[in-house]
């Protein structure tokens, strides 16, 4: 371990929104610049366990946490731990492209679980499992799901579906990988129940991310799962990135300490209000320009609209060439399918960043491009 006295920092001063200022010096500064335990900084682990108790109320006692460099790292570690070549796994489709990229080298057998406006459909899980039992095929090891604000569809699983899916996991004995980075970015009446809250038998691996509410660049996330799983993931962490950034962990701890419960609740409310407003703005612009050309569901959480262009079979050329050349950046549906060669008529539009004027201009141009494409196809 290097001697922190030789690191060229005197102090690090941070001012959080609202004016709260913290100064890292002495021991805290040395800790922030030093190697640390793979599981996470002990005071942060304590705080995060309280945080999880408060927000997700785990029902089983045998759980613990691991601090990671965001939920993507956590996903990769979990998938590498669980999956051998050819193992069947169930994924919500369409699927966040980062997960597809993490899964590709593991070569699993993908089992699609379709979504409607309320998220993945439990009956599909049941049908798949029953069919596999009948044909003697190996059962899926795991279900990958974004319960709140699925990327890219923006759906929120209903309470009854969450309960039903957990029952099915018990019945058919699969793990649930609950990747929930948009958990605090929902536009429904109250925070949805998480799978962790339903998990009486330790089969849920919950991934939280601080990327959408604190900072994406600090690279912080937390895995919450039963202690055996956490133990294995800690070993994985020890031999890969060793631990999440010490400085980031210290800043998270200070945020959790200094903002108090009300401050955090207020911050999460502010984040929700901000994105809800953005969603509403994009919705009205979509209605203005794309009515008749596309269909969509209104996202109930997250940052994305998932729209289907009605009279086109495939949007790859439109999205990747025509839109890009007009400086419109949107993602074609292909990116969310493990078979990227399949034709797809969906586009993912993001409302987190662009101004209303930029969105209006982009969607007006998109509508023009779609009309031209349809005319050419006719
Ligand atoms: C569904 C989903 N999982 C994981 C991630 C990655 O999150 P993190 O920044 O915590 O690694 C994202 C980022 O957009 C996401 O949408």
UniProtKB/TrEMBL annotation:
Keywords for this protein: Aminotransferase, Pyridoxal phosphate, Transferase
The keyword Chloroplast is assigned to this record: no
Positions in coiled-coil regions: none
Keyword Transferase found: yes
A family per Pfam: Aminotran_1_2
Domain of life: Eukaryota
Cofactors named for this entry: pyridoxal 5'-phosphate
Gene3D superfamilies, alphabetized: Aspartate Aminotransferase, domain 1, Type I PLP-dependent aspartate aminotransferase-like (Major domain)
Domain Aminotransferase class I/classII large: from-to ranges: 34-365
PANTHER family the UniProt entry points to: AMINOTRANSFERASE, KYNURENINE_ALPHA-AMINOADIPATE AMINOTRANSFERASE, MITOCHONDRIAL
Protein name from the UniProt record: Aminotransferase class I/classII large domain-containing protein
Source organism per UniProt: Xylocopa violacea
Organism placement in taxonomy: Eukaryota, Metazoa, Ecdysozoa, Arthropoda, Hexapoda
